[in-house]
Amino acid sequence: MGPPFSGCGARARCGPPPAMGSEPPLVDYFVVAGLPAAGALPAGGRCGAAPEEEPRRKEPITDVALIARAQGEEPPLGFTCIEATPSGHPAELGAGLLGAGRRLRLCYRRGRDRSPITELGVHYEGRERLRPGELLVATTPYSRPAALGPAGPGQPRAFLSYRRAKDPPGPGALGVTDICVIAPGRGESAPHTYSRVRRSLSGGPWGPALFLCYKISVGGANTLVFEPALLSRYPEQDLASFPLPASVPVFCLPMGATVEAWPGARFPLPLFSTFVLTGASGDKVYGAAIQFHEAFPRERLSERQRLRLGLLSVVERREVPGRAPHARKSLCVLSRWPCFPVFRKFLTFLYRYSISGPHVLPLEAHISHFMHNVPFPSPQRPRILVQLSPYDSLLLCRPVSSPLPLSGASFLALLRAAGPETALALLVAVLTEHKVLIHSLRPHVLTSVGEALVAMIFPLRWQCPYIPLCPLPLADVLSAPVPFIVGVHSSYFDLHEPPRDVIAVDLDTGTVWQSEERKPLPPRALPRRPCKVLLATLQGLAQQLPEAFPDPGEEAALEAALGDAEGPGGGREQLRRGAAAFLRFMACALRGYRGFLRPVQLESPPGGRDTESLELQGFLRSRERGSQRFYSQLLRTQLFAQFIEDRSFGADRQPCLEFFDSCVDKVQPDLEKPEDTPLIELDDARGGEHTVFITPPEQPVAPDGSELPARYHYDGFPTLRPELLQPPPDPLAPRLVPARSSAPCSPAPCRTTQEMKAAQRVAQKYSSVPDMWGRCLLGHCYGLWFLYLPTHVRAAPAKLPALHAAYDVLRRMEGRKVVLPDEVCYRILLQLCGQYGEPVLSVRVMLEMKRAGIVPNAVTYGYYNKAVLESKWPAGTQSGRQRWAKLRNVVLGAAQFRQPLRQRQRHGAAGSSGECGAPPPPRPALQRQPTWAGSSLRDPPPAPRLQRSGSVSALGPSRTEGSQGGVPGPPPPPPAPLRGSADGSPSDTDEEGPGGAATPRRGLAAKLQQLLSPGRRGPGLPPPPGPEPRDGDPPPRRSPMGTLLRSRERPESTASESSASLGSDLDLSDSSLGSSGVPKGSEPDGALGEEPPAVEVLLSSCSRCPGCGALVYDEEVMAGWSSDDSNLNTACPSCARPFLPFLSVEVRHFQQPPSDRRHCLALDERPLEPLNGAASAPPRTERAAFPYLSPLVLRKELERALEAEGGAALARAALRGARPILFWNLLWWFRRLALPSGLPRLLLPERRAAPPPSAPPRVRVRLLWDVLTPEPDACPPLYALWRLHSKVPTRFPARPPPGPRFSLAFLEAVLGHVGLSEVHKAIALLLDTPGAPPHPQRSIYREILFLTLAALGREHVDIAAFDRKYKAAFARLAGSRGPEQLRQRRAQPPSSKALDCRKSFGAPPEC
Questions:
Q1: How far apart are CA 630 and CA 461, in angstroms?
Q2: Quick one: which of 1387, 1389, 1368, 1279 has its CA closest to 1328?
Q3: How far is Cα of residue 716 from the mean position of the Cα atoms in its chain?
Q4: Facing residues of 162 across strands?
């Protein structure tokens, strides 16, 4: 088996790095590569090749000169004259000058006695200044002028210029090794790997234009090259998630393990290089290596090898003095993150540590300490300062959060090395899958530029071989018949010519070489306007590079994802612009592709997935005509096919694709400049300036406490000794760390980064719109429930009904126009459909999305296609049950046809006897029965159900006139509900009844006025007679209006009715409550059976403002929340002070009564009690208060909990104790919206925490509007006084306080004004009554509203109409008393934002 990772694309899956505590380590492996420490070397040179095949390095050029052959000058001693161009034309520099009288030729000299020349050029005298270190060839060796051209009007003199390397030169220094002169006018071009001077050497307008070209390479002595070996590694065992590839030593030394010899004792500087290993799924492992030379023993070299290195004289075979052999070795680290500057500092520290000393600690201690104790930065530890020694340290910072995939790309290095035009040509070559070969003398540049070539085509992924730094032993990949992106060292071309079908780019000179066999499309084939904007942006960045980054290595260090500084000259903004420029081009090029995607709506074909996921021809026709050739080639590439597959069928890249879709929506391809909205928003995720300090390894001390002597001294980098390596702090820690992902059977509910940002923008937008804020919060509440849905479905005994219930919730949301911040609700349901095999339901969900106008993003679209393709579809043939149902319908239909014949025969028989009978009864309609369930046609019709009156307008005669004889007439019409006018106010218009007579239909105000005024009641409206009471029946309850007729009588029965109405469930017919209330007779969180509950929970969100002492109710708390998902505070409507609201909780545990049917029936006959009617022993009560969280904040906390513990944590009984704030808030919101959940079951004792699914819930949850526990010294509210007068137990003191304000007459007066639609008089009565506190806890609005609800019952009060009347009354009183005075007395109505929140959520069921 081959290695799991290799540079040429050997494929294997890479998992996440091993856990180190709670954070992954920065480095996975440490490797030492080089020649084996013992044994003889192979006889061959380059990896076993024969020595005669070894290239002999040319000595560098140290001097250049110009001679005038026409004046008899000859090349000086040791100089070589360039007589002709590469094609044989004369290389005379001044051949075309008039009156010059001389023709100059260029000469050069090689050697090692001086520093080599590193750059050549042409300098114009008087037009520009000499650069530092630049020298001119002003005269010939014979002291004659060496100007390339004479001076003239407007024409300065030109001279040949050059620059040298720093003196003295070291081994392996770069220098000019070859020079040539070309004539482009005669079809000549610069040879490959040569740099061309842009200015001509002719110096005049006449004659052929000649240009100087030179080649830079490593100048050195002869070298022996061998295949590198693995000398040491740590850890010794392979990690389960990432085995160490066997080809790592080859990448550490890409030019091979060399043995060189040079005069003198000076060593070359260490060389830093980087490489990338690519796995099967595209996962990358980054390597950083440092190469250095060490002394090599002569004894290990054969005589032939020593002759090759120049250690022996050729004739006498004696040792050459002053020359010593040296071998190249490499230190390397492998990591999942491209933190190249940090790795460079660490490896340099190890190299310096090995050549210095002695030391107290061995090298192994520093290596193991760094690998065990330095993690990758996290939000908890964003900055890590590592102290390597008392004099060496490095700073590791968390990467700047970016939606783009993390890579080692450097777009600025690409611009500096290749230029804007070349970068654009490379973009075309990569998009059309050509063979791209990049080469340079700087290995670290190859990796950064290669990563940039792969990253600039985002969201497409390169699918072919990708080796940004290819070792010479793997150079055979250049002959592969597939596209590739390969980077090699420029010395490769000292032995080989570039392949004929590649595009070779020299990153040192910026030149591009391409063969005539297969040329890529020109850049003008790209979309015109996006290409124009991209080129202009790249040219602007290229012009700013010298000013922003004077050092060529600064942009690579800044782009290495460390983000420690803003960068010189605003460099960070330039980095963002470079990446955003290519991203904008790709977004413009692929804009509109989602409209041509084909969602799967049928069963998958037998061959697997349907490859026609995109309508190619339609997409091609939608592109502009000038770029048809480019798009036709792009659509045939593997990278585009893989992009469509990832977009359609789901992949681990879905968050990145979702980000790209958001960029597509932002761009405008027709613009001539980039959009003002940035595509890439860099979030500084470093967490402030919090820095973690990691100390160096502790030095051992002697038993007496003194320091130990330094005894570790190295002549070279040693082989690692296992006994000196420190073990991990806790070897079992990685095994004991629990999985931090969701359960395998649970979908991933977390939102993507783009969805979080979009939701934040939507919340900020609607927080300032009062009519939309409530629906925005409602959308987040439904999102909470869908995050909980996988846990709920997993616990459900039947999965399909639970999924259909979730689908019904989706449809309910669409009907209520809920503002959904994202697609998580649909996505989770689609993923559950795929998990439980429901493809038909997934298609219905997708159709609902389209009906709602939601375009699915990449994540949702992938889950949908996956659910449709991978799920088992229902059989196409009809089942036996359906066939029997059809046969049954046929039989019933035949019976229906025969029935009229029988009736006609009977009628004929009766007519012949002379009897007149009644007409035959109407035939029942044929009903479709899909199954055997259902009643037969002969079954009697069901008895009419008892209907409860919804309003006081039901009072009236219960019998109708016109029934004749003993034949019963038609049933009376149902009582008309309380109706209102168009504006919601009660209407007094009359309506004709069934018999044509006018039936009075009056509103609540008219009824109250009529009932309060006995003289106004007409004689024709007697009280409705009720059914006669039977023996043993409880006394009948009177109407709520009966108390108002007799103001002196205590309204015991009315109070009971009011209490029952107020404590009952919400009435969905109430327009002010919306449709989110709990339906009557259903309690999804824990419906009561016939037995009393085991646990009763009371919840209240009413909170007291600590500033002004006012009570802030639920809808006001919602209106005061902000759009910030990290802000827990709300704003008080009275004093506008921010404060933290609390959710008050009271849990009551009851003793279970015996299960006796007679006892259960007796409970129904007793009057309604405030708790449960089984109070043989006082319940055990628990009270607590927890922060009341906004749905935005709560959703963020729930996502964190799911990411940390998985969805199974929401079904454990420990949730209440581990995360109480999360538990109680979720229980409140789910109960508020009548959504099913299993959270109430977690309140049962441990032995009942998990009852069988068929058992009825034993928990009752009640939501209160007012405070749960009133303050003992506070004034009781008016509705509590009404209940006290009515002898109804309440949570307030048992006796009403003395005073006129608390009398029953006062309460009835307030109710009378409300009933007569004189709300302003009720407000004035409360303001003017003595004894009213100046700053009450409850506003006057709350006092009147709660009193009305307590006296009349909730189903008899239209809260929306009451709000309108109160608002009009406040405006009326504000004109006479002043609005400021009314606000001080807290008489103002709720804000429109609060009213909209109550309309969206509905009011809590109880006060």
A1: 18
A2: 1387
A3: 49
A4: 120, 135
Residue of 71, 37, 262 whose CA lies nearest to 170: 262
Tell me which residue of 1382, 720, 767 sits closest to 1125, measured CA to CA: 767
* Beta carbons within 8 Å of 1385's beta carbon, 6+ residues apart: 1327, 1332, 1334, 1335, 1336, 1340
**pLDDT score of 1088:** 40
DSSP characters for 407-442? ----HHHHHHHH-HHHHHHHHHHHHTT--EEEEES-
Sign of CA dihedral 957, 958, 960, 964: negative
Strand 691-694, strand 257-263: pairing = unpaired
Helix or strand holding residue 262 (H, E): strand 257-263
Say if residues 181 and 64 touch (Cβ distance below 8 Å).
no
CA neighbor of 1324 nearest in space, from 1271, 1381, 1276: 1381
Instruction: Please choose, from the candidates 1376, 1379, 1404, the residue with its C-alpha nearest in 3D space to the C-alpha of residue 1099.
Output: 1404
C-beta of residue 163 within 8 angstroms of C-beta of residue 197: no
Alpha helix segments (H runs only) across 420-527 = 420-431, 443-455
Residue 989 tokens, joined:
């218009």
Between the CA of residue 608 and those of 640, 869, 870, what are the distances in Å? 20, 8, 9
Q: Is 1123 helix (H, G, I), strand (E, B) or coil?
A: coil
Residue 874: pLDDT over 80? no
Q: Please give the full DSSP string across 801-842, using - where no structure is assigned.
A: HHHHHHHHHHHHHHHTT---SSSHHHHHHHHHHHHTT-HHHH
Determine the Cα–Cα distance for residues 881 and 874; give it in Å rounded to an integer: 15
| Residues 343 and 285: beta-carbon distance below 8 Å | no
Contact yes or no for 275/302 (Cβ under 8 A): no
Task: Count how many Cα atoms sit within 13 Å of the Cα of residue 176 in the half-sphere of its side chain.
Answer: 28
For the chain, give the mean pLDDT.
Answer: 75
> Which residues lie across from 1143 on neighbouring strands?
1186
Tokens of 288: 């950083």
Cα gap 1049→1043, rounded to integer Å: 7
Burial of 98 (0-12, 13-18, 19+ CB in 10 A): exposed
Q: For residues 1074 and 477, what is the distance between their CA atoms, to the nearest angstrom? A: 69
Average pLDDT (1342-1368) is 88
Spatial contact of 691 and 384, defined as CB atoms under 8 Å apart? yes
Amino acid (1-letter code) at residue 823? E
Instruction: Provide the CA 922 distance to its chain's centre, in angstroms.
Output: 64
Partnered with residue 839 across adjacent β-strands are none
Please, which residues bridge with residue 327 across strands?
A: 259, 294
3-class state of residue 496 by DSSP = coil
CA dist list (Å): 1343 to 582, 1054, 1323, 1335: 63, 19, 10, 13
Interior angle at CA 1100, CA 1348 and CA 1284, nearest 5: 40
Say how many C-beta atoms besides its own lie within 10 A of residue 1124's C-beta: 15
1002 pLDDT higher than 50: no
What would the pLDDT profile of 1143-1202 be if each residue is shown by its tens digit? 999 998 886 544 444 443 333 444 434 444 444 567 788 899 999 999 999 999 998 888
Strands 393-397 and 383-387: antiparallel
- 997-1003 CB contacts, 8 Å cutoff, 24+ apart: 999/956, 1001/953, 1001/976, 1002/953, 1003/978, 1003/979
Q: Position 473: which residue type?
A: P
- Please name the residue ranges forming H helices in 1098-1254: 1114-1120, 1157-1165, 1191-1205, 1215-1218, 1220-1232
Whether the predicted pLDDT of 247 surpasses 70: yes
Ordered DSSP codes for 1035-1101:
PPPPPTTHHHH-TTS--HHHHHHHHHHHHSPPPTT-GGGTT-SPPTT--TTT---SSPPSEEEEEE-
Residue 646 sits at the vertex; the CA angle it makes with 641 and 647, to the nearest 5 degrees, is: 95
User: Is residue 891 classed exposed, middle or buried when 0-12, 13-18 and 19+ CB atoms within 10 A define those classes?
Assistant: exposed
